[in-house]
Amino acid sequence: MPLRKLTTTDAFVVVDLDGADHAVGVARLAPKVLVDGAWMLARSVTYAFAVHGVRAGGASAGINAKPDGRDAAVTAFVEEVGAFAGDAGLRLSPSTGLTGDDLSPLGPDPLDPVLSARGAIAAAAAFLDGGLDGRTIAVVGAHPAADAARTELAGSAATLADAATIDAEADVVLVAGKVGAVDHDAAATVRAKVLGPLTAVPVTAKAHAVLGRGDVCHVPDFVALSAPLLATVDPDAADAVGRVAALAAELAPGGTGAWREAVDRAETFLRTWRDDLPFGRPLG
Predict the structure, then answer these.
(1) What are the domain boundaries of the chain?
(2) CA torsion 186→94→258→180, rounded to 10°?
């Protein structure tokens, strides 16, 4: 079921690794949800599992509906997806345009944005000599994980920057936004030494290159955001945030090459149980 278009409403589900025991991701609702963006969101989850050595894959869903047709579209989506979600190992959490109540009939609890925030902060801290003590962190964007990050940082040894902008004077910029929110022009304005994601695939391929040339470490989103994914499907994930922090600490010495090292680790594992790699890497 790589791409399944629903028949009862204008919606679709993509599953990155056909045949995987688990397919985890988010569902979004808007007047027009792009399939290409859904694939990138699913791909990020696939690499998140793979970099931790977990045999599972990503998924993503889109519901195309205008406000006046929203409720009917959600009802039809839940009913049709519910008929095959269990057999496909599909677990969808609400994202843009949807709430937990909307998807509650599908069963599993949503991914926890607090775990996402804690993992992202721990991953970014691993890229700083001495961790968060005395550091300034800027949190950019509107998202539950961004709100959770601000709350977490308020009780930490770090200082939350006054400016919530990507060009903030800070040691770390944590960014929440849609796929590809950080383009090459925005990347060129980053003054922090570490850019960490709070949502999946916020950095474009061109922006990643610009960050590297500017000696800015781009923390892989599929590492930083993997804590709630591990907690969802991996029975050994008692300390999911700790696992994220440990992996980030292994990658951090690679500096601006850490993203590529994480990709190599993920793909090495994928080759142990897949004949082919999914096409394309998780960059917006």
Answers:
(1) 3-106, 113-257
(2) -30
